[in-house]
Specification:
Elements: E1 11-15, H1 31-44, H2 49-55, H3 58-61, H4 64-85, E2 92-95, H5 99-106, H6 112-127, E3 133-138, H7 142-156, E4 160-167, E5 170-175, H8 177-189, E6 195-197, H9 210-221, E7 231-233, H10 244-256, H11 261-270, E8 274-277, H12 283-290, E9 296-298, H13 304-311
Parallel strand pairs: 1-2, 1-8, 2-7, 8-9
Antiparallel strand pairs: 3-5, 3-6, 4-5
Helix pairs in contact: 1-6, 4-5, 4-6, 6-9, 7-8, 9-10
Length: 312
């Protein structure tokens, strides 16, 4: 008999943010899981979210106040279906931007109804903020981008800064449209050719969200958040909260500060974690691979269960 002990692998769930939504994104979810939550969803919101996801149009679904509960609901349903298909212990949760709230629901910091209400309110507050734009900048180091943003802020007195530090090869900037365009122009003149404008109306994770963060504090105070039952890594500081005050603080800071995804991926790399992107699309799967993680699976892939079983 072999005395070699096979240790179980560390498993992390990562939840996508805005941009991963699409009409029909629940097509691969068994109807029994949707039926389970219908009453909860209808109680939480004053519009038919499931109908918008299944039969609506992209314009409605892409409104921030609808996108946020839509992605949270879809991600939660992908999680429920995954857990019903394979019995694995989840060690760590993290979500990209809005995905942090999907992680909070799965970690039982708040229930699904509270989560849907909370992110709908968050979306409404973000929609009231100053308009702006966001660009993904590829193959340029963070220091150079940060320096150009500082120069433009000083020269124009407008806001522009790194918003999502996704990988060493992909950084998103956000701010006032004029300032963002000026930074992009400087980058292109400096030889950085791959700058992709994101289809968003709200410039997330920058100082233009300050008013939303202030208003959102009142919303969070009225929700009975609990510490998650599974380790949850926050966007603001790529670490877990020690108490409820810190958890609330991290959620508020997330609106006006960059998503520290590189640091989050580094933490999961140290754990030699299997990473499961739980939700619609495969955006975070690609980003994880560009952070040199190799055990990465998306629940949107048809063969995700077979891949997971082989990794285990």
């Amino acid at each position: 008999r072999s005395n070699i002990l096979i240790m179980p692998r560390h498993i992390s769930l990562v939840f996508p943010g805005q941009g991963s939504q699409h009409v029909g994104m629940l097509e691969s979810i068994d109807s029994c899981f949707i039926d389970e939550v219908k009453l909860i969803v209808n109680s939480a919101l004053d519009f038919d979210l499931i109908d918008i996801i299944n039969r609506g149009n992209s314009e409605d679904l892409n409104r921030t106040s609808i996108t946020q509960p839509a992605i949270l609901l879809a991600s939660y349903l992908f999680y429920r279906q995954l857990k019903s298909s394979i019995n694995v212990e989840i060690n760590t949760l993290c979500g990209h931007s809005l995905g942090e709230y999907s992680a909070l629901v799965v970690g039982e910091s708040l229930n699904l109804e509270e989560g849907l209400k909370l992110v709908h309110q968050r979306g409404l507050l973000m929609e009231k903020c100053q308009a702006g734009s966001m660009y993904a900048v590829l193959n340029c180091d963070l220091d150079r981008i940060t320096d150009f943003c500082k120069q433009v802020r000083k020269r124009t007195n407008l806001e522009v800064s790194p918003a999502n530090i996704n990988s060493p090869k992909q950084i998103v900037i956000a701010g006032n449209e004029e300032a963002v365009e000026e930074v992009i122009s400087m980058l292109k003149n400096d030889g950085i050719r791959k700058c992709i404008k994101l289809q968003v109306s709200v410039p997330s994770h920058c100082k233009l969200m300050a008013h939303a963060a202030h208003e959102f504090e009142n919303v969070i105070r009225n929700i009975d958040l609990k510490l998650p039952k599974i380790e949850l890594i926050h966007n603001f500081n790529a670490s877990s909260a020690a108490d409820i005050n810190e958890l609330n603080f991290n959620l508020l800071q997330q609106l006006t500060n960059p998503v520290q995804w590189v640091k989050t991926m580094e933490y999961l790399k140290q754990k030699n974690s299997i990473i499961i992107e739980c939700g619609p699309g495969k955006v975070l799967t690609g980003i994880a691979k560009s952070n040199e993680l190799d055990s990465v699976i998306s629940t949107s892939a048809d063969d995700h269960l077979e891949i997971l079983k082989s990794l285990l």
